[in-house]
Design a protein that fits this description.
Mean pLDDT: 79
Oligomer: single chain
Radius of gyration: 25 Å
Strand content: under 5%
Number of strands: 0
């Protein structure tokens, strides 16, 4: 058995434990999570420019329409995110979701266990890791999906970078599109193989976990089958 690498008290203070609590909440309350996440994002994204405009601009008659015009598409995108979040999570998680009372420390350790391979010494960690292993089988999490998205993104931004270079040379537009092209190529080279390895380890863990659970259920059944023979003798 693998020994736990993080003491529970220190794990609860780990930044990823906070992310774990958010992940558990999002899987069980996707729309409420989307509302909170979008609200925070809008405050962080829109409040600083608004405050800056208040400080720098004096002509509110012309500034307010500009601010409203800039805020409208952001608000619309936020509303779409809230509306689509449940469907997106269903596609990402498949039919398996974490229990609402899942301990974020167990979730953190379960993720480590899937990367290490093998079964953990704590049953609760194994149960959480089994849910994560099932989620890894969702089609959207497949290496093929990652590769397709990476290739399409690299081709799209590569074409935009080429057009920008032909029109304006190595300007800011070219550098931006070239950066995105390299980013998608990096996804193709690194994220695709990592996803393949992660899914394979998740399948191996699921096999070990299911075999152990099956072995645990066999002895009582075997004892019941032998009971009539024992009575005859």
């Amino acid at each position: 058995m693998n020994e736990p690498t993080t003491h529970p008290r220190s794990a609860r203070r780990h930044p990823r434990a906070l992310f774990g609590r958010m992940q558990v909440y999002a899987q069980n309350h996707p729309r409420a999570y989307a509302v909170r996440a979008v609200s925070v994002a809008l405050l962080v994204g829109l409040l600083p420019p608004f405050v800056l405009c208040v400080i720098l601009l004096d002509d509110w008659a012309s500034a307010v329409p500009v601010l409203l015009g800039a805020a409208a598409p952001v608000v619309i995108m936020g509303a779409l995110m809230v509306w689509l979040m449940p469907a997106f999570l269903r596609r990402t998680l498949g039919t398996s979701t974490l229990q609402p009372d899942t301990d974020p420390v167990d979730l953190l350790e379960a993720k480590r266990q899937l990367r290490r391979g093998g079964l953990h010494e704590r049953d609760e960690v194994n149960r959480v890791a089994r849910v994560l292993a099932a989620q890894a089988e969702a089609r959207i999490n497949s290496p093929r999906t990652v590769n397709v998205v990476s290739v399409v993104g690299a081709l799209l931004f590569g074409a935009l970078a080429t057009m920008s270079y032909l029109l304006d040379g190595a300007g800011s537009d070219f550098r931006l599109t070239a950066t995105f092209t390299l980013l998608f190529l990096a996804y193709l080279l690194f994220l695709g193989p990592w996803t393949r390895r992660y899914r394979q380890r998740a399948r191996e863990f699921a096999r070990l976990y299911d075999e152990r659970e099956t072995a645990r259920e066999r002895p009582p059944e075997a004892a019941r089958e032998r009971a009539p023979d024992a009575l005859v003798h």
